[in-house]
Amino acid sequence: MCAPRPVQPHLPILLGGSGPKKTLPLVARSADLWNAYGTPEEVAAADAILRAACEAAGRDEREIERTVNLNVVIRGDRAEAERAWAGWAEAHLPQPGEADLDAGGSIEEVAETLARYRDVGFRHPILIFRTPFDAATMDALPELRARLGG
Length: 150
Description:
- Helix content is 45%, strand content 17%.
- By secondary structure, the protein is an alpha/beta fold.
- The protein has one domain (14-147): TIM Barrel (Alpha-Beta Barrel), CATH 3.20.20.
- The chain has helices at residues 23-30, 40-57, 78-92, 107-119, 135-147, and strands at residues 14-16, 33-37, 65-74, 103-105, 124-128.
- The N and C termini lie far apart (39 Å).
- Strands 1, 2, 3, 4 and 5 form a five-stranded parallel sheet that branches.
């Protein structure tokens, strides 16, 4: 028995990954939230597999909240963001496929990228900040949020 007990009656389960044979069917059966990683096109393709897995499991796919991990750097333009990102990528040696700067550039450019994820059903981005933390991007988040209408 765990004490203290959770304050909510149901503790949401978040599962991450996009494996079509094991992970996505598990998400379809058990998860409240699903976290993916990839381009908007890649996560949309994985989402189609998840929808089919939900149908096979007899579950309404709309019950599962979609989230996506994104490496984000806000600077004056994409080239400046890529230069800043290179230092973090080199220091942290992300896994293959995770070394890309997913959303980078001006606030407008990053907002456009996040909108592409929203348009394919991923309304909750999880922004990844690697150490040493990117204060310039973090300081720009309120403006980014306003740009996205949040």
